[in-house]
Amino acid sequence: MRERLRVFAAVFRDPNLLRIELAYAGFCMTEFATWVAILVFAYHRGGATMAGFVAMIQLVPSAIVAPLASYSGDRFRRDRVLFVDCVVQAVSLLVTAAALLAGAPIPVIYGTATIAAASLTFTRPAMGSLLPSVTKTPEDLTAANVALGVIGNAGIFVGPFLAGLILAFFEPGAVFAVFGVITAIGASLTRRLKVDPAAVTPKERIEAEAVWKETLAGFRVLRR
């Protein structure tokens, strides 16, 4: 326990790492809380069948986007990838909240929720590519990754727990509104990162054609 506290203390002394870790905490809670909220909404309107269908339309686009997300940090400046992703998440979550609270048509609600879910796919690769660029020593990088792991595991519990508390008194749209604001705060934190542009810019920019080539190569390996 003492060693874990020492690791967290080392991370939190660095302003950049502190901002990244706090933004990641908000992301982890948001990811699972909004998943619970949209499935609760679907279940109330169509039972288990509709909940399963919504889960599918949330996951399939995210799976398609995942290869692009994994290479984003090798194509664009890494701190900006994280910031833009947080902004897209916040906007899509707040639009989904507005659609839910206003009683918008079902396709609109599921469409905006799916965009929000797909945008969440970019966060972990962006974090993974950014951390080595903002840490000074291997020990700092190890401590930052340990903190990310602990925060991620906590988010799996805390996010749905908070979603359940909100759903006990309000509609699912309130969950998206609350976590849309939390994500907007995360965007503000990542916007204020103080980094060396040369350290966060890929030295060899990977081209879009290479992304598809490498992705398809992976599937060919799995097939064999």
What would your notes on this structure say?
The radius of gyration is 18 Å and the shape is globular. The protein is built from 9 helices and no strands. Helix 2 packs across helix 4 and helix 2 (15-75) packs across helix 9. With 224 residues, it is an all-alpha fold. The protein has a single domain, classed as Up-down Bundle (Growth Hormone, Chain: A).
The CATH topology is given as: Growth Hormone, Chain: A
Tell me the Rg in angstroms: 18 Å
- How many domains in all? 1
Percentage of residues in strands: under 5%
Question: Span between N and C termini?
Answer: 45 Å
Main β-sheet: number of strands, strand sense, barrel status?
A: none
Quickly name the level 1 CATH class: Mainly Alpha
Q: What is the global morphology?
A: globular
Q: Name the CATH superfamily classification.
A: MFS general substrate transporter like domains
Range of helix content:
over 70%
Which residues form runs of ≥5 with pLDDT under 50?
none
Count the beta strands.
0
Q: Judging by the overall fold, what is the CATH architecture?
A: Up-down Bundle
Count of helices?
9
Mean pLDDT: 80
The structural class is mainly alpha
